């Protein structure tokens, strides 16, 4: 198993503030995008803020990334909010909300 596979819970979803009425991207769809469909050339985090309680963590981040999706090249700044929960003493991500 990859580290990413261990960190991402089975119920993980990705949604967007612009697309709240659309169906969420499931874990399996997101993993396929990351490992097969998107070729990422670079990622640079511009800002990040983490807040935690004993059982929940919220990660807010803004990043620049570039690469290709199929034949389409991209270079963009994006931001997200991830929700993490502590399970059996280990942190796992359960949700990502794309905020821009």
Question: How are the SSEs placed, and which strands pair?
Answer:
Elements: H1 3-7, E1 8-16, E2 25-26, H2 27-37, E3 38-52, E4 56-69, E5 72-87, E6 90-98
Parallel strand pairs: 1-6
Antiparallel strand pairs: 1-2, 3-4, 4-5, 5-6
Structure description:
Strand 1 (8-16) and strand 2 form a beta hairpin. The mean pLDDT is 93. The chain has 2 helices and 6 strands; from the N terminus they run αββαββββ. The termini are far apart. The chain is globular and about 45 Å long. With 100 residues, it is of the alpha+beta class.
Q: Which key terms come to mind for this protein?
A:
100 residues; alpha+beta; 6-stranded mixed beta sheet; 65% strand; globular
Condensed summary:
The chain has helices at residues 3-7, 27-37, and strands at residues 8-16, 25-26, 38-52, 56-69, 72-87, 90-98. It has 100 residues and is an alpha+beta fold.
Question: Roughly what is the average pLDDT, rounded to an integer?
Answer: 93
Instruction: Tally the beta strands.
Output: 6
Which structural class is indicated by helix and strand composition? Answer: alpha+beta
* Secondary-structure element order, N to C: HEEHEEEE
